[in-house]
Design brief:
0% strand
Length: 165
């Protein structure tokens, strides 16, 4: 089982690194767009649709960075109480938290994909630039699926740790 978890972990890390790099690239593009808009406002020629584009880009940046942040254990964790519990209880709590987090993000991925499909069917576009919504919404659904994979990995590691003890 250890070999299978290692292969799964390698795949999950590669996928989430790609998403994280994409988030970084979109963040740079968002910064350049915002700065460009500020510079072109001075002579009276702001970039049309900047607000919309920055909103789409911010959604992608935030969503695409989630899985990598979970891999790095970068999310806030308050363990004032749990750190005082016996190690076995801590591991059991980790199993429970990872399981419910996995279920939550799997459901989020599914429901956001359904939502994206409704955008696609309705032909929803943004007001100013008429940009289609559904690719961005599918991107968020994809990132939720990738963080669910990370949480699956965390869940399996917690289970393996519980079995060892």
């Amino acid at each position: 089982m250890g070999l299978k978890i290692n292969r799964l972990e390698t795949l999950i890390k590669v996928l989430n690194r790609w998403l994280n790099w994409a988030a970084g690239g979109v963040l740079v593009a968002m910064m350049l767009l915002a700065c460009g808009n500020m510079i072109t406002r001075v002579p009276g020629y702001p970039i049309k649709g900047t607000y919309e584009l920055v909103g789409f880009m911010a959604a992608i940046v935030a969503a695409f960075a989630l899985g990598y942040t979970q891999l790095q254990k970068g999310h806030t964790r308050v363990d004032i109480l749990t750190s005082r519990l016996p190690l076995r209880v801590q591991v059991i709590l980790d199993i429970i938290v990872h399981f419910f987090s996995l279920v939550l993000f799997a459901l989020l991925s599914w429901r956001v994909a359904v939502f994206a499909r409704s955008y696609w069917s309705a032909g929803e576009v943004s007001e100013t630039l008429n940009i289609i919504y559904y690719p961005f919404t599918y991107g968020v659904a994809l990132s939720c699926a990738f963080i669910a994979l990370v949480l699956l990995l965390d869940f399996l590691k917690s289970l393996a740790q519980a079995v060892k003890k």
